[in-house]
What we know:
Elements: E1 2-10, H1 14-24, E2 33-38, E3 42-47, E4 55-65, E5 68-78, H2 83-117, E6 123-130, E7 133-138, E8 148-149, E9 152-154, H3 161-173, E10 176-187, E11 201-211, E12 221-225, H4 243-252
Parallel strand pairs: 6-11
Antiparallel strand pairs: 1-5, 2-3, 3-4, 4-5, 6-7, 6-9, 7-8, 7-12, 10-11
Helix pairs in contact: 1-2
Amino acid sequence: xxxxxxxxxxxxxxxxxxxxxxxxxxxxxxxxxxxxxxxxxxxxxxxxxxxxxxxxxxxxxxxxxxxxxxxxxxxxxxxxxxxxxxxxxxxxxxxxxxxxxxxxxxxxxxxxxxxxxxxxxxxxxxxxxxxxxxxxxxxxxxxxxxxxxxxxxxxxxxxxxxxxxxxxxxxxxxxxxxxxxxxxxxxxxxxxxxxxxxxxxxxxxxxxxxxxxxxxxxxxxxxxxxxxxxxxxxxxxxxxxxxxxxxxxxxxx
Length: 253
């Protein structure tokens, strides 16, 4: 068996990185069969006997980071040619072709995903921490009336995610915050600002208060809670998956 690994950082959220990768396909002249597809975190495709391959498997994993989506790809193959001939073909011919094909493919993929990300409305959230407590906000009105969330909102066109985070905290809470570290990303199942269903994600950061005292300008109430109190709240669905990361953050501060 022969194996190559490739890593690419894509300036796009998980859903965009996954969907664009799926649309572009793989850089092989033979059709591959889908074996595993778990949107937006993993997929595996393979091809059986035919042409130069006994088999070829191409797998991808998508991981959210503060800078975008990290895409780890692995290509495994075997020609089935015997002895020295097989070694020469695999190592000196096919390995080089795989590398060339993947390099060209990944360059085009990263550019396409970055372009597509500009058309998808994103949402940012802030886990504002003071001491051993994090600030939570209670929704007022709408389908999630009375539920709790982390402050935040939509990223405006031409605005960076961190700029949007700072702006939303100023508008909703009346405080100036300084983003510290990326916490995680959650797929939003519904439609955000008229976009495609399940195309947007919530990307959350840990933030510290630089100045001001939080005031509920757009929420029914605000609370400072400890890690042990987080599970007792009635959370909106989008924010609940972030709780393990927030608990871990509070435990290490």
